[in-house]
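User: I'm putting together a teaching handout on how multi-component assemblies are represented. Below are the sequence lines for each component of a complex, exactly as they appear in our records. Could you produce the 3D structure of the whole assembly as structure tokens, so the students can see both representations side by side? Please keep the chain order the same as the input.
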Amino acid sequence: MTGTPVPPVSALQRTLAAEHAAIYGYGVVGAHLSGSAKTTAAQYWTGHRQTRDTLTAMITARGVSPVAALAYYDLPFPVTSTDAATALAAHLEDGVTAAYLGVVAVEDPRLRTFGALGMQAAAERAVYWRGTTLAFPGWPGTATLG
Amino acid sequence: MPRRRLLTASAAALPLVLATAGCHSADLFAGPDPLGGRPPLAPGTVVLEAVIAAETRLISRYKSVMSGTSTAPSGHQASVLESLLAQHEQHLAQLRSMLVVPPGAQASESPSATASPSPAASSPARAAGPGSVAQLRAAERESAATLVRQLRDVEPALAQLFASIAASDATHATVLAAL
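Assistant: Of course. Below is the structure of the complete assembly, with chains in the same order as your input.
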């Protein structure tokens, strides 16, 4: 948590970077899924692309160049099975949730609301993949603050 | 006279001494008037108290549903409710750890009445009495929405805590919908 407001553009850029990573990651996830899970992954991938475009427009409107996607992202673990793909999807959504948490620390109330709603959407997607809820979505590494 | 009683008597007599001398306490101190009554709570503290009160009500509602005599959940449903209740208790503990009421200030008696948006406090989803899983789901949705409104005007760290709890509550509502 932060005690001082975060510059809006920095928070938005970090969130855009997380969305880029999610878009890349869902490509890997989808390759290892089938049936309804694959369909859901495709829907979520599309949603992340739309949010990427929204964030890009928000950053551009502030006179700043949006951060670009990387050509390649290191995966946190090998993805060679359905279970690993599902775990990666949850991991990606956790990362997006944490990025939106940074947006909540800006001073602008509208951006805070945008960040909070982004957190909710990502946390719900993470629950779809993980099957369990967290007490404190967005906090790094653990379900609790303690 | 014991020393403690002497100090008490001296403090009580101070305004009288100042008045007799033609002084106002504000003349003697650069900061807030120490004799001017209890300081008001910061707006963020008032909102935090309201959130704590709402979280406490939500926990009570869970316990009410889980202990219902005729409709008490069992099996998988009971297990899920216990898990969600445990997370709400974590929320409450974390919220309480953020509450710092300065010495001399008094916690507001009715936070939900003084802090902005607490429509949830009087809504059907929050009403007292036995409830159902469907009512819990509605209460979770309301909690998430209310927290998002309340985080707009508090300090960043508190806003982030509210946002995280709101996200947790939103996922609870989704899980409850599947029961």
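A couple of points students might notice: Residues 8-65+75-130 of chain A form a domain with the Ferritin fold (CATH 1.20.1260.10). The first helix of chain A runs from residue 8 to 31.
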